[in-house]
Structures are given as structure tokens and as C-alpha cells.
Amino acid sequence: MTQPGETTSYRDIKRTVLERIRSGTWRPDTLLPNEQELAVEFSCTRTTVNRALRELAEEGFLERRRKAGTRVLSAPQRQARFTIPLVRDEVEAGGGQYRYALVSAELQPAPEWLSARLQLRAAQEVMHVRCMHYSSNTPFQYEDRWIVAESVPQVAQADFSATGPNDWLVQTVPFTNVELTFLASRADATLAGFLDMPEGEPVFTAERTTWLQGRPVTFAKLYFGAGYRMTTQI
Amino acid sequence: MTQPGETTSYRDIKRTVLERIRSGTWRPDTLLPNEQELAVEFSCTRTTVNRALRELAEEGFLERRRKAGTRVLSAPQRQARFTIPLVRDEVEAGGGQYRYALVSAELQPAPEWLSARLQLRAAQEVMHVRCMHYSSNTPFQYEDRWIVAESVPQVAQADFSATGPNDWLVQTVPFTNVELTFLASRADATLAGFLDMPEGEPVFTAERTTWLQGRPVTFAKLYFGAGYRMTTQI
DNA sequence: CAGTGGTCTAGACCACTCG
DNA sequence: GAGTGGTCTAGACCACTGA
């Protein structure tokens, strides 16, 4: 397989293993030879085999357990990976010209549903920001966001007239934990107005809840314009 | 930092690096010390540092380039990772009892829109399968799927009365390439009937197009029942 | 308890790319 | 051209876990 003078790389091994799975040489549930044996077969070190198999396991093709060995997964755990872009990047990637517009921004006591959701104290102060993102003047996304003032005190002085709250947060509170949810919701009158669609239309919606070391930072509802599709290759 | 007798693991390094980023010690765009220097600091080998930084780069925190070095990304490229479960697993994970029901399955010439989408020859034969997935007898998902007979000849003999086409395909044609799209669509009369919801309701929808080494295998529209949410932690 | 993968060391050569 | 990360080798010890 490997010519003299060539070295076997972990990529070669990954490719070969995948091919054996695809071709049915190693069917689902098959136990692979152990790393030592594969190292001999591929004439490389166990380290190299290890890296190949480790990555394949991480990609959802194999299952590895000490002592039990490495097994072909019966149903490959395919994972969709979405990179979450900033809205501006997403618009520009689509060939549009990005424009931002603030709708409203005000400090207010958290509504009850938000307090429940983020485990806030009753009526804790939050900054409520609503804004629009346009792609070449076509409505792209309506954003409805709450930022917990106690967790991000600077928010009281923040100016969202030119910059969106997400951009601001990324600069101010980087590296948070995020819970992301996708759903289909229904355009009410307000939303239909902002997104320029008939009332009652389905709207692709994302909800992002963000925490910084256990403390709630922000909750955002992102409503995407008509025809929005989120696509990924696996 | 490391006590004598302890070894520094790549996990320790990852944690420390993340902490320095979080705390602002290494701000966005900062150039990190090179691997050799970090190896000295952490008193370990460059190999170990390499693994730590490589993984952090893959997770979207760092950018690495030869000669240029390793840099903190200004906007961390957070990635959402969804594991795509089999419907049955998804239902059972939600505590429901899974039930499958075939609606129809017939060989037919591909409709024009499908031929265009999958680059088929005109009127090429496809198996059209429609079926329902229930969670404890509540509609969970309506599946509308086309399977290209030329790419999967066995489909002509397949029996979808007891097993869903996805289960069958996973067994028959594993390890394909997939394009996955999420969108919000609108329940027409048929869909509203199957999913037991009022007509016109928003429906969370996934489209999966599957290829095997460049040849189109299947296209599926998956319509999820009322209130469906797809959630992930990042 | 024995077999398997998980990880680390020490050293080397190489590929890429910035200046 | 020279500095950086990318990868491989050879060997070792260890953690976990199945039989």
C-alpha cells in the first residue's frame, strides 16, 4: 500500500479506514484490530494510528472503549456543524449590503417570563433592545434581546444606535456559554411589519441564551426574514 | 503551577489558555508565545502544547498559521454541533414511545423539480415514500422522501411497511454525504391533517439531500410536529 | 487481572509562509 | 531565508474496564 520512502500519515489511515467502512469490509459493529496491529499493517507507530482513530471517533464513525476496543458504529453519529456567524458576515456572505437599525433600547424590570427563564430575581433590571438587520434594504432579521444589567453593568452606558447589541456583547463579554434553539414561529402583526411579510407567515426563529460562568447574560430571539434557510454540509 | 511529580496534560494547557483569554490576559488578536516557549512554561514537550493549541483552534478560539504563529481570534468562531439522531432515538430520548406508520410507497418517474434538484435524467425512476413517526401516538414527524432507484437498486424490493426508509437507508447505504437545511414552512391541508394542527400553522422543517460518491441517493423533507424545537449547547 | 486505548516524552524532519 | 506549526518515530507508563 505504502511505497518505500513514503510515510504513512494519519490522513492516509483515516481515508483507508473510511473506505473499508464504506465498502463494507468493516461492517457496522465490527471490532477493528487494535492499534498495535494496525500500526504494523500500516507500518507506522501506534501514535499515528491513535490519532487517526481518535479523530474518526470524534467525527462520529467509530466508538472506542478501553479494553473493549474500537468498533464501527451501527448508525454513524453524523453531526451537523454550524458556524454561528455575526449577522453582518452572514449578510455579506450572501452578497448583500449590511445595514443596522435600532428600534428601541431601554432599561426596564425583567418581565416575569424572562426572570423565570434566566433565573433572575423578581423585577431585576434588564436592557431591552429591539433592532433590525437588513440585507441591501431587505429585512433580514429582527432581533429582540434582553441583557441582564447586573451581569454586564456597562450595558447602562452602551450606545446601540450605531452598533448592534450582539457586536457590543462580543466585544464586551467574550467566551460565554450559549444555548441555541431553532424553531418555527408565526409572524404576529408587529413582526410581519418589521419583516415585511403577511401576518401569520411562518418565521424561522433562533433563540440564544447566554451565560458567563453560570450567570445569565442575555436572551435573544432572532426572527429571520421570509425564505430564510439554514444550510450545512455534513 | 504544576506540582513536582504531577504531569502537565494537554487538558491543563487548554484550560489555562482559555482562562487567559477569558480574563483578558490574552486579548483578541494577541499573538501567543510559540509552542517551544509554552512548552518551557508548562514544563512539558512541544507535542503536548501542540495538541492543546490544535484542539483550541479546531474549537474556534485560536487561529494558527505556520511562521505567523498562534493568535486569539477576535470573534470566536463558535460552532453549533447538532448530532442528527434517528427519529426513533429522538422520540425515545424525549420519553415518548416510538411508533412508525407507512402512508404510501410507490415507484414513479421523478417529478421535474426533483430531477432538477438532484440532477437526474428526465423521468428517472424514484421510490416515493411518505410516512409518519409518532411519539406515544402524538404526531412527531411527517416524512416525505424520494429514493433514486438507479443509485439504490434494492429499493424496488424494499418493504417499508414496518421499517422507515431512513432506517433502511442507513443499513443499506451507509456513509453518504449529506446536505442539511432547516427552514420554517407552512402547514397545508395535507400536512395539517397528518400533524394534527390547524392549516396554516408554522412547521419546523428539515431537508436532507444525500449523495453517495457524487451520485444522488435520496431527498427527504421532514416536517416536525407542533412546538418542535431543536436545541444545542455550545 | 489482563488487554485496550489515553497520553506523555524526547527528538527529528518537514511544509509552509511571512518578511 | 528563517521561524513557525505539522507530523512522525520510538518508547514508556498509566487508566480504565470487560471477562
Automatic annotation (TrEMBL), chains A, B:
The keyword Repeat does not apply. Residues 7-75 form the HTH gntR-type domain. Keywords: DNA-binding, Transcription, Transcription regulation. SMART domains: HTH_GNTR, UTRA. Pfam families: GntR, UTRA. Gene3D superfamilies: Chorismate lyase-like, Winged helix-like DNA-binding domain superfamily/Winged helix DNA-binding domain. InterPro entries: Bact_HTH_transcr_reg, Chorismate_lyase_/UTRA_dom_sf, Tscrpt_reg_HTH_GntR, UTRA, WH-like_DNA-bd_sf, WH_DNA-bd_sf. This is UTRA domain-containing protein. It comes from Ruegeria sediminis.
